[in-house]
């Protein structure tokens, strides 16, 4: 009799209703945490960079993948099975996009000569000649690709001895950010520069002893910083040559990460990212000076790459600091197929 009265009192007081409301609130909170990561994962899997602002933020996918671990934890704490299962799926998708960059991959059986490729964005030629030439002297690259290469920088670097270290050059200097160049230890044949939106991407063919001709592009499409620059960014990346009968290497500041569809298109065509191939794909390259957007410090991302022909083996990848530029320089040690 007493037990029945207590149950009736609980029902009358609305406790089961409060329990259901709490459950709904927990479920709503869990879904609210899962949803943004789910939307990000879906957009990341699409075969196109769907919108201007997405082009700007997709570069931060590695950070989002790490943050997405919060979603299953929240769903688990809320005791909500369906949001938990969805959160696990979303985190798995994002991890699958990012984690392989830290694991490395198999290498082709290249048995030709070694080739060391270095690249640097000079921030409108701001890198002091002594520092750039000093780094070249220490690193001893066979090929050097430069971006934001100005006429004044060209003169200063040659006076500092760059031409002695790398005597062959295809140079396309320009005031501001649009110039580029290829320097090499071996003879070069100039190609036609790729020019979109005022950005001139120098191209060349380097004649490496023991290998066939190797095509080189100093990559630097315009940055998609403003919506009106989106087209020239897309066109600059789309103009990059795909792998063909001859060996090609794309080296420079792509203004894009491995999460951008335009770069994924290049990888799908057969190129391999040197940093990704060696397990260094999460080594960030920009910005390496304080850079703020709407008052928020921008975390560093990986927009400088060396993309290599599928027949080229990658032995190592490294980044180096240079003063007065917001990019780190990159260096890849490659082995070419025998010519």
From TrEMBL:
- What are the residue boundaries of the Endonuclease/exonuclease/phosphatase domain, all occurrences included? 118-327
Record-linked InterPro entries? Endo/exonu/phosph_ase_sf, Endo/exonuclease/phosphatase
SUPFAM superfamilies in UniProt: DNase I-like
Listed Gene3D superfamilies: Endonuclease/exonuclease/phosphatase (3.60.10.10)
Whether Transmembrane counts among this entry's keywords is yes
- Could you tell me the keywords of this UniProt record? Endonuclease, Hydrolase, Membrane, Nuclease, Transmembrane, Transmembrane helix
Enumerate composition-biased segments (Low complexity). 1-15
Q: Which residues cross the membrane?
A: 28-46, 52-77, 84-103
Q: Which domain of life is it from?
A: Bacteria
Q: Region Disordered: start and end of each range? A: 1-21
Citing just one GO molecular function, the answer is: endonuclease activity
Q: What protein name is recorded for this chain?
A: Endonuclease
């Amino acid at each position: 009799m007493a037990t029945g009265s207590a149950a009736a009192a609980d029902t009358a007081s609305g406790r089961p209703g409060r329990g259901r409301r709490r459950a709904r609130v927990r479920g709503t909170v869990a879904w609210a945490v899962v949803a943004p990561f789910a939307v990000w994962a879906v957009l990341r899997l699409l075969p196109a960079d769907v919108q201007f602002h997405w082009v700007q933020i997709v570069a931060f996918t590695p950070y989002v993948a790490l943050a997405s671990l919060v979603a299953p934890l929240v769903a688990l704490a809320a005791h909500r099975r369906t949001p938990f299962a969805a959160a696990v799926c979303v985190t798995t998708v994002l991890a699958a996009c990012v984690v392989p960059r830290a694991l490395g991959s198999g290498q082709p059986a290249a048995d030709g000569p070694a080739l060391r490729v270095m690249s640097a964005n000079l921030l409108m030629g701001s890198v002091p000649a002594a520092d750039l030439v000093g780094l070249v002297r220490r690193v001893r690259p066979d090929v050097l690709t430069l971006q934001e290469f100005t006429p004044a920088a060209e003169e200063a670097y040659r006076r500092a001895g760059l031409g002695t270290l790398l005597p062959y050059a295809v140079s396309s200097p320009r005031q501001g950010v649009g110039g580029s160049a290829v320097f090499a230890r071996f003879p070069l044949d100039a190609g036609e520069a790729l020019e979109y939106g005022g950005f001139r991407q120098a191209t060349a063919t380097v004649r490496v002893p023991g290998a066939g001709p190797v095509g080189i592009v100093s990559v630097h499409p315009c940055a998609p910083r403003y919506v009106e620059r989106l087209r020239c960014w897309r066109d600059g990346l789309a103009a990059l040559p795909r792998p063909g009968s001859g060996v090609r290497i794309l080296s420079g500041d792509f203004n894009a990460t491995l999460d951008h569809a335009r770069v994924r298109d290049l990888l799908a065509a057969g190129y391999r990212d040197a940093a990704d191939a060696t397990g260094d794909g999460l080594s960030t390259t920009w910005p390496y000076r304080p850079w703020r957007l709407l008052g928020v410090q921008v975390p560093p991302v990986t927009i400088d790459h060396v993309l290599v022909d599928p027949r080229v083996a990658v032995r190592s990848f490294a980044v180096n600091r240079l003063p007065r530029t917001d990019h780190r320089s990159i260096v890849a040690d490659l082995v070419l197929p025998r010519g």
